[in-house]
Design brief:
5-stranded antiparallel sheet; 5 strands; globular
Length: 89
C-alpha cells in the first residue's frame, strides 16, 4: 500500500482552494510552496500573506481510496516561508 498526502493552497482573499496536488510527505509539499514563492512569479509569490497550504487528505495510490481530512489541516502559511538569500555579501 503506497499512500501520498493530498494538499491544496487556500487563497484567503478569494476564499477558495486551488488545484489538488499529491506529495509523498509534508516536506515536499512545503518545498513546492517555497519554490512558488522563490520564483517571484504568480500570486503566491506576489501576495504570500494571502495564501496557506493545507493537507486535505490522503490517497492510496494502489487502490485509489481517498481519505479526506475534515476540516483541512493547516501545514503552513506562505508568508512564514522565507526563501534563503542567494546574495554572497
Amino acid at each position: 500500500m503506497q499512500k501520498q498526502i493530498l494538499v491544496n493552497i487556500y487563497d484567503q482573499k478569494a476564499k477558495n482552494y486551488g488545484f489538488v496536488q499529491t506529495h509523498p510527505h509534508l516536506v515536499s509539499a512545503e518545498r513546492m510552496l517555497l519554490e512558488m514563492i522563490a520564483s517571484g512569479q504568480g500570486n503566491v509569490a506576489k501576495y504570500p500573506e494571502d495564501f496557506s497550504l493545507y493537507q486535505i487528505g490522503t490517497i492510496d495510490l494502489e487502490s485509489g481510496e481517498i481519505v479526506p481530512n475534515f476540516p483541512p489541516q493547516l501545514i503552513c502559511h506562505a508568508i512564514d516561508i522565507k526563501p534563503q538569500s542567494t546574495n554572497n555579501m
